Amino acid sequence: MPRTKFVQAVLQGQGAGNDGLTLEGADGQMFTFTPRQVAAFIVVSAADIGEQWHSWQDEIFAGYPQQQRRDLKTNWAASLWPGPLKPPSNILSMLSHLLAPLSRMPADTGIPLPPAFGDCRAPLSPRDEAAASALYWQGITRMHPLTEMDSARHLLEAAVAHNPWVGEPRLLLAQLALTSGDFDAAEQHAAAGLAALQAWGTAWDKRIEWAGGMAWARIELQNARARQWPENLAALNGLGLVQ
Fold first, then answer.
1. Are 198 and 217 in contact (CB under 8 A)?
2. Which has the closest alpha carbon to 87: 41, 137, 128, 126?
3. Is the separation of the CB atoms in 208 and 174 below 8 Å?
4. What is the mean pLDDT of residues 199-210?
5. Of the four, 2, 61, 186, 206, which is 20 to 30 A from 22 by CA?
6. How open is the CA angle 66-69-72, to the nearest 5 degrees?
7. What is the pLDDT of residue 42?
8. Measured between alpha carbons, how far is 111 from 205 in angstroms, rounded to an integer?
């Protein structure tokens, strides 16, 4: 099945009706998909891309799914794997539009509606995705001078405003709130971050695997509800779920 052609066709508005979708492969072979198969392949394609994609794919597949062939020797620097492992800055927007037809497809496809992007109903613009990724990266890597906690908070709040569909910026906001003793805000951010991670089933920041992010979110949420947090740096290393 020519997945790139499939993604291109769905983004062009094909395949959302009762007639399904017909595609021609590179060798001339015809592929016909029922509405159920269209829905299934949308979900599988989005899950596969979301699980793999970080800044390395941003570079080597620039413009996906309309990417152009580029010479490896000329673009050798982009090829160095895994690169900086930054969160992607130009793929979630595409995924939000790829998933959107699921909310308009026939109700009898039998394919569950993924919870990402507000049950596939909220598009994310390329501008907002790029801004959120850049703001998060400036904060988490301290590329932007963080002389005061408010500076970090403002960066992360702006990242969430641009892209509310990923969990990691919210988990950092939860940690800042815990450190400040604002346990109500910490609980809100931790719960939202946990829900976002659960919705995706994969990490946005690929430097930490999804299970690690889930564990950290639950630790934050538990401590926010218990209204407690370590007062020295070394104690953070001993945090765990104890109830």
1. no
2. 137
3. no
4. 96
5. 61
6. 140
7. 97
8. 28
pLDDT at 243 exceeding the cut of 60: no
d(CA 160, CA 143): 18
Paired tokens of 50: 């979301």
Please give the helix or strand (H or E) that residue 177 lies within, else none. Answer: helix 168-180
- Of 44, 61, 57, 132, nearest to 93 by C-alpha is 132
183-200 and 168-180 helices cross at what angle (nearest 10)? 160
Confidence of residue 241 (pLDDT cuts 50, 70, 90): low
Q: What is the separation, in whole angstroms, between the first and last Cα of the chain?
A: 47
Q: What is the DSSP code string of 42-82?
A: HHHHHHHHHHH-SHHHHHHTTTTTS-----TTTTHHHHSSS
Handedness of CA 153, 207, 8, 117 (dihedral sign): negative
Element (H, E) at 126: helix 126-140
Strand partners, 24: 30
Provide DSSP, 135-147.
HHHHHHTT-S--S
Helix (H) or strand (E) holding 222: helix 210-226
